[in-house]
Amino acid sequence: MGLEELSFTTELVVNELVTNAIHYGKTPIQLRLILQSSLTCEVFDASNTAPHMRRARTFDEGGHGLLFVAQLAERWDARHSREGKAIWAEQPLPA
C-alpha cells in the first residue's frame, strides 16, 4: 500500500502528539493509528484542556509541536468527551 512513504512524517506527528499528551495531559494516554481513506494518528488523554497552537520564537525549546503537526498533516483537530480529549492528525495516503 506504500505506507513506507509516510513513515517519517508519521513518526514526527506521533512524537509531537504523544509528547504534548505527556506534558500537558493526564493519564491514561492512548495512541491509535487508523488506516482508512487516509492515515489518522490519534492520541487520547484524560485532560479536558484544549490544545492551542503557539507561535514560539526561533530559540524557544518548546511550543513548536502543534505547528509542526499542522504543517505535516493535511488537517488536525481535537475531539472532546467526558473522559478527556483526542487530538488527531490526518495524512493523505500516497497515490
Describe this structure in words.
The protein is an alpha+beta fold. It has a single domain (3-92), classed as 2-Layer Sandwich (Heat Shock Protein 90). Helix content is 27%, strand content 32%. The protein has 2 helices and 4 strands. It has helices at residues 7-24, 65-72; strands at 30-35, 38-45, 75-81, 84-92. It is globular, with a radius of gyration of 13 Å. The N and C termini lie close together (9 Å).
Brief account:
With 95 residues, the chain is of the alpha+beta class. Helix content is 27%, strand content 32%.
Question: Radius of gyration from the CA trace?
Answer: 13 Å
Specify the biggest β-sheet.
4 strands, antiparallel
The secondary-structure class comes to alpha+beta
**String of helices and strands:** HEEHEE
Strands of the widest sheet, in order across it, are: 1-2-4-3
The name of the CATH topology is Heat Shock Protein 90
